[in-house]
Amino acid sequence: MQTKPSPRINPLSILGVLLVAGALVGITWIIFSMAVRQAAHIEATPQYNLTIIPAPTQTNTIIVPTELPTPTSEVPVILPDGAIGINVYVKVTGTQGLGLRMRAAAGTGADINFLAMDDEVFKVVGGPEVSDGYTWWQLEAPLDEKRTGWAAENYLMVFNVTTPTP
């Protein structure tokens, strides 16, 4: 009986396998190194160019009037403490949380512009007018000129505004 010779691997096959494996390792190495470089670029701390602008300093300015004031016949009216008048600040009070109807005109039959709540402050810009048994004052919200209306004096109290000294 004849024995079969053991199969032998061709040396060129081994060389081919080694070349393919080396090519795969080389390609993997190139891809990996590119990914590392890209990640390092992304993680780098960004650099910003800053321009520092110094804060303004206070300078004394002298304003010279171009026109001298002309004397007028209007004499400023000095109101007694607690009296309502033009340019006086008042606050809404006494509505028990129901609010005060701010009307388009003086009188209980006038349209309601909005509802002012207790302790809300307004500046008196018009009045007084007497209508329907009430004295009415035209009020304007200090921070919103669109919130204006007429209110009955019975629900207003003078709000003393003091300017703090520096």
The secondary-structure element order is HEEEEEEE
Count of helical regions? 1
Rg from alpha-carbon coordinates: 44 Å
Estimated helix fraction: 10-25%
- Summarize the main sheet: 5 strands, antiparallel
For this entry, what is the oligomeric state of its chains?
single chain
Distance between the termini: 122 Å
Strand order of the largest sheet: 6-5-4-1-7
Would you tell me the structural class of the helices and strands? alpha+beta
Would you mind describing this structure in some detail?
The chain is elongated and about 140 Å long. Helix content is 20%, strand content 27%. It has a domain at 89-158: Roll (SH3 type barrels), CATH 2.30.30.40. The longest helix has 33 residues, at 11-43. The chain has one helix at 11-43, and strands spanning 89-92, 100-103, 112-116, 121-131, 134-141, 144-152, 156-158. The strands form two sheets. Strands 6-5-4-1-7 form a five-stranded antiparallel sheet, with no helix packed on it. Strands 2-3 form a two-stranded antiparallel ribbon. By secondary structure, the chain is an alpha+beta fold.
